Amino acid sequence: MTLLASLALALAACTSTASPSASSPAGGGASSAPSSAPSAAASGGAGGGAVDVEKSCPTPDAEKAAAAVDTAKFKTDGPWTLGVSAGYLSNAWVAFNNAYVSYGASLEPRYTSVVRSDAGFDVNKQVADIEDMITKNVSGIIYWPVDNGALSTVLQKAEAAGIPTVNVANGFSDQAGITANAQIDNYINGRTAAAKLVESLGGKGEIVSVLPIAGTNSATLQDAALKCVLGLYPDIKLLDTQNGDWDTAKSKTITEAWLQRFPKIDGVYSPSGQMSLGVAEAFDEAGRMDEVTFSPADEYNGWLKWIAAHPDKNSGLSTFPTSVGKTAVEVMTGILDGKATTKGTWAGAEYVAPDAAAKLASPERPDDWWPNDLPDSFLPSK
């Protein structure tokens, strides 16, 4: 599967804490609960002693996300009409995220109708879609963008009309027009993957990095997290970074070039299971699997199946739950109820140890499947 925009899975929905360091699953999801994150105080840093990665590399948005939202101006009695504006619906992660939005809305009886749209990666269409929802006077709009910046004006128009907006799964943003966010913490996701990788390498070695689409929230924050962690470990050298675009085939091609270029690669940083799968296939076909250590990735089923079949290369997971869609509905419900709400509600980035990670694999499911606790009637149809 090729993912084409910033976003990846589901162990569970998130609590409403604004602090990403305190995020934890709540509700359903895959059967295995995440363990604690990789050791924050790992040995092998610049000073030769313990390194507190969490303290040294704090998430950049924690303070902004903790800011209170004025929900009083949006408080309204039901029944409610929920607007759902999809920037796109063309990949599996988003399909599951969208399914969780539907499921979350079904659990609140005051949502009596849902108005949906799919912009198909056309930002002008998404602007028009949101304009239409404003005209229809929906109660609130949950959206994932083609381009958040390009939506600012129409989102501000929605708020001016008394319609709150919740940005889901695109990473935190405090731009005008966004009432609140329900998002994966891409920085902590990347920091977890980086910290576990350097820990597995004993603080020494030569690594490569494969990131999502250049310029996306995921790529920018995951790269920043990696560089911060590497700054604490001078004996680890970053040989090269490329953008695999959440694409297994592209990531495999990138890795084939790396294997020609570098006679030794000790580790691979890739928080995405789609990309990690392509990387692993290239190492395997080149007969160089023995030399490499992989960072934790997410719960993409193709990767889960691979680590289940290669336990010696299983570094665990850094979660990227599709259930953030349900979290977004819960955030919207709180806003419409006029309850205390913070600017950001975090999901994911929990570390899952190798044994528990391997048990999440669904061998009978396609690679594009994601762990979930959705009722059958809400599962994506394709």
**Gap from first CA to last CA:** 12 Å
Our Rg estimate from Cα atoms comes to 20 Å
- CATH fold topology of the domain at 38-60 and 186-318: Rossmann fold
The CATH superfamily of the domain at 38-60 and 186-318 appears as Response regulator
| Strand ordering within the main sheet | 7-6-8-9-10-17
CATH architecture of the domain at 38-60 and 186-318: 3-Layer(aba) Sandwich
Percent strand: 15-25%
Largest sheet composition: 6 strands, parallel
| Strand element count | 18
Q: Which runs of at least 5 residues are low in confidence (pLDDT < 50)?
A: 1-43
One letter per element, helices H and strands E, the order comes to: EEEEHHEEHEHEHEEHEHEHEHEHEHEEEH
* CATH class term of the domain at 38-60 and 186-318: Alpha Beta
Q: How much helix is in the residues?
A: 25-40%
Q: What's the total helix number?
A: 12
Structural class: alpha/beta
Query: Which descriptor suits the 3D outline?
Result: elongated
Please tell me the overall pLDDT: 88
Task: Describe the protein's architecture and organization.
34% of the residues lie in helices and 19% in strands. It has 382 residues and is α/β, with parallel strands linked by helices. The chain has a domain at 38-60 and 186-318: Rossmann fold. The strands form six sheets. Strands 7-6-8-9-10-17 form a six-stranded parallel sheet, sandwiched between helices. The chain has a four-stranded parallel sheet with strand order 12-11-13-14, with helices on both faces. Strands 1-2 form a two-stranded antiparallel sheet. A hairpin with a 6-residue loop joins strand 3 and strand 4 (50-52).
